[in-house]
Amino acid sequence: MGNRGSKPGTGRSPSATQGQQRNQRGRATATAAVTVPKDTAKAYDALCDRLKEVSVLGGISGLLGWDEMVMMPPGAADSRGAQKSALAGVLYDKKTDPVLGQLLDALKAAPPGALDPYQAAVVRDAGKQFIKDTALPKELAQRIAKLESDAYAAWVKAKTASDFSLFAPFLKEWVEVNKEKARLIDPSLPPYDVLLDDYEKGLTSARLDEVFAQVREGLVPLIAAIKTRGRAIEDKWMDGDYDLDKQAELCKKIALDIGFDTDHGRLDVSVHPFTGGAHPTDVRMTTRFKKHSLLEGITGAIHETGHALYEQGRNLKYDGLPVNAALSMGVHESQSLLWERMVGLGRPFAAYLLPLLKERFPDKFGAASAEQLYEGENKIAQPSLIRVESDEVTYPLHIILRYELERGLMDGSVNVDDIPKLWNERMEAYLGDRPPSDAMGCLQDVHWSAGLFGYFPTYSLGAMYATQIYAAASKAIPDLEAKIQAGDFKPLKAWLNEQIHSLGSLHASGDELMTHVTGGPLDPSVFLAYLTKKYTDLYKL
Amino acid sequence: MGNRGSKPGTGRSPSATQGQQRNQRGRATATAAVTVPKDTAKAYDALCDRLKEVSVLGGISGLLGWDEMVMMPPGAADSRGAQKSALAGVLYDKKTDPVLGQLLDALKAAPPGALDPYQAAVVRDAGKQFIKDTALPKELAQRIAKLESDAYAAWVKAKTASDFSLFAPFLKEWVEVNKEKARLIDPSLPPYDVLLDDYEKGLTSARLDEVFAQVREGLVPLIAAIKTRGRAIEDKWMDGDYDLDKQAELCKKIALDIGFDTDHGRLDVSVHPFTGGAHPTDVRMTTRFKKHSLLEGITGAIHETGHALYEQGRNLKYDGLPVNAALSMGVHESQSLLWERMVGLGRPFAAYLLPLLKERFPDKFGAASAEQLYEGENKIAQPSLIRVESDEVTYPLHIILRYELERGLMDGSVNVDDIPKLWNERMEAYLGDRPPSDAMGCLQDVHWSAGLFGYFPTYSLGAMYATQIYAAASKAIPDLEAKIQAGDFKPLKAWLNEQIHSLGSLHASGDELMTHVTGGPLDPSVFLAYLTKKYTDLYKL
Questions:
Q1: B533: CB partners within 8 A, 6+ apart
Q2: Contact yes or no for B434/B153 (Cβ under 8 A)
Q3: Which of A247, A392, B108, B264 measures 20 to 30 Å from A452, CA to CA?
Q4: CA distance B159 to B176
Q5: How many other CB atoms sit within 10 Å of the CB of residue A507?
Q6: Can you list the residues of chain B whose pLDDT is less than 70?
Q7: What's the pLDDT score for residue B106?
Q8: What is the set of active-site residues of A?
Q9: Given this model, what pLDDT does residue B36 score?
Q10: Catalytic residue set of B
Q11: Between A and B, how many CB-CB pairs are < 8 A?
Q12: According to the model, what pLDDT value does residue A381 have?
């Protein structure tokens, strides 16, 4: 029996490796004096070296997160925490290095035309990020870190007891802390706008007020009409047990058909589906399957594939630079929702999907028609009080409700103590139903316990962007829906790669990107027209 | 159909996370002035903070390596390279920080008794490592990095052409470079000893000369006797196809029976079996199975389990400190070989294994006896010219041959150009057979192309340590072999945990550890007695 050459490391590094490290760095320690080059091109290169290093280390952080969710043994949580913290410390040092600030200052002062549009976008976004990274004094940063854990614990307790008053003091502190943070980052803007920019670059609350008012006015009557005048849709026939292995195999086939690239990514199963990874060439997507929820597994897989295609579609010419990052949370969500809803829940896709279902689940789908599948997929079970269980028609109102409240908290027009009352009143006004408890109402979501004001809107921005993008794609790609029906998703993927994915963060806002792609800024009337047409037809209103 | 909350990051970090990072660090940048505490306890704590940070970041590096071998999609190789390089750069900066050197200088000057034995070992090993990490000037480090790739490419070419002369110039440069490196690290020692210390702490070539001479003199006649007078052993009956899933399931059962802890580790399959991971609580072990090689899969799994138990057995009281690292490559190998050979290839284990084989592979093992299994497992197929295909009797001579040559290269008594001639002569003298080509001879192993002089001996040191440790365990644990036969591996694992694993690098050398565990230093006569007894009996010499 032969010996094997395998040996784990001993914690000592052979000198050859050390040599390689030193060679790769070529500098002694972080304390060495650095001067900012006077030449714009050289300064830009020096900036890019630093930004790319941060991006690469951030990629490692992404891998640690994926591994933690998908692979890590349960007893390694503490050591993983220490690893994430140490790497965050390294990243913090790199991101707040004063030399980075000096390079950015020099480049912001560069003569017009010295930088091409991609380079200008790098300086613009890196400059904004540097201000955010360096704005907070240590005391405030520590207060935020403590509040994150304290408020989470309080939210868990309050939700369990269904008693908002247990959470109220922490939400009050988040309001104060977020106001202070926003003031330090940019005192010239409304505080809520500063927070919003973290998730949806370039968006203002004034713009969002207009957009969401229009959505609200369009949806409230549509929901009421479905509720009062909609026909009954039969979907009970799809209930039942679906073999998990067959679900996984089917969803992998769908992801690959749509265009997920396993040379540059992995598909795994995790408790919560997500798309993460370490790099556009290393995208880790996960799905989840439940025996009783075939459609949830399928739409979840399509949704994550949409996120993954955005990640895999970046332009590696700008690898590691801010201009190559996702433009915003909303734009990211537009990619997942375009595939999930515009494609995956449409009639042509039902025609593509049905034979795959018949093959795997003949007992259930042997006699079904594509129209029956389409109807079952799109049935609105019951306008739900719970956001994460809601359908595409009621979902935006959940978001608008939260937006109105968190925006009010930040501008002082809403008091924390009034949240439960306001929540219940508006839920009744928007969805025609009143939550029976705080747990089912204003305590249902975790986001506020983490101080995330400005995050919720991106869900609905993504849904709206998706309808506009799909409309533009339908014009640009001949016979798009016939291609979808035939399972040929390549033209749509290629168009998205070119129009959206490869552009990364070149544009300064979602509005700018929409103008580039669709000829006009975000336009809620497209979203409303889509929903009205689809559900008027489906429910024969 | 509900929306999902899953969203990949956008490359932007919400400020709350930044706050946490800053909070966890509590310092501005790496350029802040640092003073070395005068108080020994405080200086020691400051040292430990830095060493632990390096250890944690090194753990991340371990995870990147594991992921690359087991999980990473093929198209991510470049981005993974960039990640490893960036992290290596960070580690290099941390490991060569002058403040670390100042802390070590202060602690080396601490009054006797100011540090307990574990603390003293931390300062001893960290001090040695700091010298190694800072010894090489940039030019030499760059030369080494270049030589690593050039020499590897030349070795591949030379091996393919079976022509040593193509590789000779690179080996000459490695000799020069390694001499220079050794001189920079410690000019007071023979250069080979400086290199050896990277892999086998505290060992000298003078000591190794004695040890290996004794082994050589004992083994050459034993091998000749087996070859000329040994009886034929029947093992053809085990040939055949073994279902891979059944092999994997069996090997997992064996690893768990032996004591691998899946709360603090994972078992996966990879192209080359190895044990790695990120932390003693996160040990990643891999195995490999071939349809035609049942025994190779089983012994491989046992071997890696031995490595993994050493990793999982560390004393977390000293987590992240050098004293808690593996003592040496040789000691690591002693743990894998103890389980693989002393346990896994012994008669009691064959009695434990046989029913498991009968259950899974009744066609092959239904009629077999434990003695037949034992004989089949231990048959020496043919003294092999290839190291990695060799058995435990001939293997040490492969190592000794390489040791003699690389030691001769370093002290000037061997010329690079004479290597093929010397190799072939000694192979004939030691194993009674002459390689038909350089590819089957002196070019067979990759190690020299990476400049790894001093690495080979650790394989055989591990085998020798293992026999001594097993002898000590047999005295300390009543009825050890009866317990093994019954599949009760807990007492042996617990004894190793206490005697070896939890001590980490406390001792200054393998000799010191052996003295602690077995009452005396490394003693090749124990190894020789074990082999002579086992094979005299097996081959009825």
A1: none
A2: no
A3: A392
A4: 22
A5: 22
A6: 1-34, 383
A7: 96
A8: 304
A9: 86
A10: 304
A11: 385
A12: 73
Does A15 contact B140 at a Cβ distance shorter than 8 Å?
no
- Which A residues, 425 through 464, put their C-beta within 8 Å of a C-beta on chain B? 450-452, 458-459
Residue B232 contacts A, CB cutoff 8 Å: no
- When CB atoms are compared, the residue of A14, A272, A384 closest to B452 is A14
**Tokens encoding A442:** 């204003």
Amino acid at B191: P
Q: Is residue A117 part of a domain?
A: yes
Do residue B98 and residue A181 have CB atoms under 8 angstroms apart?
Answer: no
User: ipTM of the predicted structure?
Assistant: 0.91
* Start-to-end C-alpha separation, chain A: 77
Q: Where are the beta strands (DSSP E) in A274-411?
A: 275-279, 282-287
Chain A CB contacts of B273 under 8 Å are 4, 6
Q: How does strand B282-287 pair with strand B275-279?
A: antiparallel
To which H or E segment does residue B307 belong? helix B294-312
Same domain, yes or no: B337 and B369: yes
Q: Which residues of chain A have pLDDT under 70?
A: 1-34, 383
| pLDDT, position B1 | 34
Examine the domain organization and report whether B373 and B324 are in the same domain. Answer: yes
Which residue is listed with tokens 């994430």?
Answer: A84
Q: Does residue B468 share a domain with residue B379?
A: yes
A88:B181 CB<8 A? no
- The pLDDT tens digits for A336-368 are 999 999 999 999 999 999 999 999 999 999 999
Q: What is the largest CA-CA distance in chain B?
A: 78
Residue A414 in contact with residue A408, Cβ under 8 Å?
A: yes
For position A382, what pLDDT does the model report?
Answer: 73
- Whether A52 is in a domain gets the answer yes
Q: How many Å is the Cα radius of gyration of chain A?
A: 25
Q: Which residues contact A135 (CB under 8 A, 6 or more apart)?
A: A181, A184, A185, B15
Cα–Cα distance measured from residue A43 to residue A289, given in angstroms and rounded to the nearest whole number: 50
- Residue B111 structural domain: 38-133
A278–chain B Cβ distance below 8 A for any pair: yes
Cα→Cα distances A323→A198, A462, A465, A522, B10, Å:
15, 20, 20, 21, 11
Is B473 a domain residue?
Answer: yes
Per-residue b/e over A220-233, b at no fewer than 16 CB within 10 Å?
bebbeebeeebeee
Q: Does any domain span residue A109?
A: yes
How far separated are the first and last CA of chain B, in Å rounded?
A: 77
Residues of A in contact with B82 (CB under 8 A): 56
A377 vs B87: CB contact, 8 Å cut-off?
no
CA atoms within 13 A on the CB side of A510: 31
Residues B464 and B329 in one domain: yes
Residue B217 shares a structural domain with residue B88? no
pLDDT the model gives residue A295: 94
Q: What is the pLDDT of residue A8?
A: 39
User: What digits encode the pLDDT tens for the residues A412-466?
Assistant: 999 999 999 999 999 999 998 999 999 999 999 999 999 999 999 999 999 999 9
**Cβ count within 10 A of residue A352:** 21
Give A214→chain B minimum CA distance, Å: 21
Is B28 near chain A, with CB under 8 Å?
yes
We report the CATH number of the domain holding residue B415 as 1.10.1370.30
**Contact between A345 and B281 using a beta-carbon 8 Å cutoff:** no
pLDDT, residue B383, reads 64
